[in-house]
Amino acid sequence: MWLFFTLATTCCWGLAELFYKKGARPDEKYAHLKICVAVGFIMGIHAAYTIFIQNIGYDFSNLIHYFPVSLCYIVSMAFSFFGMRFIEESISDPIENTSGAICALLAVVILGKKIAPFSVVAIIIIVIGILGVGFLDNTGSTDRKKKIGKKMAIIAFAMPFCYACIDAVGSFLDIYYLDIEKSPLVNVTEDTIELAANTSYELTFFACAVILLVFMKFRGVNYEITTQKDKLLAAVCETAGQFTYVFAMSGNGAIAAPIISSTCVVSMILSRIFLKEKLTRKQYIFLFMVIAGILLLATIEGD
After folding, report:
1. Contact of 59 with 196, CB cutoff 8 Å
2. Which residues, at least 6 apart from 32, have a Cβ–Cβ distance to it below 8 Å?
3. Domain ranges of the chain
């Protein structure tokens, strides 16, 4: 069953990226905040299901204990949603998926963990790929500055990197929070610690959604969540993938991790088919270098 959940996670998150992109319209000023609201409300519903139906004995004080991790994940996603308004999904998603490489580097630098030689090679491949994409994005026919202005082009292209760095910090903190012997989470067991952490994240996201909804109402922004089809579909796919991810990693994480890392490949294919995104041959070469590095790193670190 772990393989089914692994493939389900990959497909769900790949679809989520597609609907995120469709919902992040560049002409809609608060599109990124509206996506956050949609995701927060769907996650709130799933959190309620976990607490009351699965009955994991959730302790609400974990909302505070897990808040630093939740904040990293939520802020990183908000940056991602903003960047999607101006950056092709085929470019942003592979860059965002380098968060795993950054997390591995943090573990080496801060925790003193050893890194395999092939992992170093994988990280170098990722860096070269990203540098290549960045260079091409600001030269020749792919010059984004001509379309949205120099300042916004720099800000937009920085968003995937902001996501990768902040998400990596969240993943790094999870190393500590999901260690049953060291975790500050209370009233958890080896069977419930991941569900408790995920529920804390979802409830925090729901609280943020309420705050953002009030903020937009205060600013006079017309937002009826039931009319936001693409944003809601993205939220459903994101939450479904989060649900299946727990079972995928608990079954055979060493093999599941590299498969799930191929989400960016699924996203790139879907973006090419449904969003008609067209990149240059050189861009695809550098993007596939990034993807190859991600898959290599996930395979090595998963062993």
Report:
1. yes
2. 24, 78, 81, 82, 84, 85
3. 2-302
Longest dimension (CA), the chain: 57
Q: Which residues of 230-247 are buried (b: 16+ CB within 10 A; e: fewer)?
A: bbbbbbbbbbbbbbbbeb
Rounded Cα distance, 130 and 161, in Å? 10
Per-residue pLDDT tens, the chain, 303 aa: give them.
Answer: 778 988 999 999 999 999 999 999 888 989 999 999 999 999 999 999 999 999 899 999 999 999 999 999 999 999 999 999 999 888 899 999 898 889 888 888 888 877 788 888 988 999 899 888 877 766 655 567 777 888 888 899 999 999 999 999 998 998 889 889 989 999 999 989 989 999 999 999 999 999 999 999 999 998 887 778 999 999 999 999 988 887 786 666 566 766 787 788 888 889 989 998 888 888 889 999 999 988 888 777 665
Residue 138, helix vs strand vs coil: coil
Alpha-carbon span 294 to 109, nearest angstrom: 19
Handedness of CA 250, 254, 169, 264 (dihedral sign): negative
Is the CB of residue 264 less than 8 Å from the CB of residue 80? no
State both tokens at 59.
Answer: 């302790």
- In the three-class reduction of DSSP (H, G, I as helix; E, B as strand; rest coil), residue 18 is classed as helix
CB-based contacts of 98, cutoff 8 Å, min separation 6: 126, 130, 164, 290, 293, 294
Question: Residues near 283 by Cβ (< 8 Å), separated by ≥ 6?
Answer: 90, 91, 133, 136, 137, 142
Closest CA to 89 of 139, 18, 7: 18
